[in-house]
Amino acid sequence: MSAITLHHSVSTQLAVTVAAAACDFAKHENLNICVSVLDRHGHPLAFQRMQGAPLHSIQIAEDKAFTAVSFGFATHLWQERLKENGHLRQALSQQPRLLMIGGGMPLICDHERVGAIGVSGASEQQDIACATAGLNTFLAEIHDA
Question: pLDDT truncated to tens, each residue of the chain (145 aa)?
């Protein structure tokens, strides 16, 4: 049994590529968003704020990514997971940086969380679509590697 474990994380270069893909999608859809890509530990690697994106969306994008990397599933899935458990939903909603709204997605490679993307600035469904564009770029990049 090894006393040391090795973990992988998304690279800064790939994080920048993922953030750019989300912004490119948003631009095509005439949206102004903020995108944050975090490493596996929840530390920022890449961030972009499109002109016109709400200033509050800066922190919201990072918190969506932080929630996704913390738990390993997309943030829009929280509502379904907690629909029968209102007291837990209320308790969790009081936790700093935990956002249970769509737009945060983990970046997973070989069943290991290596980072996350968070998007804010548009509607929840549009944030999800932009984050999905970033996620799809991530998946294409790791598949080609």
Answer: 668 878 899 999 999 999 999 999 999 999 999 999 999 999 999 999 999 999 999 999 999 999 999 999 999 999 888 888 778 888 888 888 999 999 999 999 999 999 999 999 999 999 999 999 999 999 999 988 6
Burial class (CB in 10 A: 0-12, 13-18, 19+), 28: exposed
Token pair listed for 60: 């919201």
Q: Exposure string (b/e) for 80-112, b if CB count within 10 Å is 16 or more?
A: eebeeeeeeeeeeeeeeebbbbbbbbbbbbeee
> In this structure, are residues 100 and 92 in contact, taking their beta carbons and an 8 Å threshold?
yes
- Alpha helix positions (H), 33-106: 57-71, 78-82, 86-93
Instruction: Judge contact between 45 and 37, C-beta under 8 A.
Output: yes
User: What's phi and psi for 142, nearest 5 deg?
Assistant: -75, -25
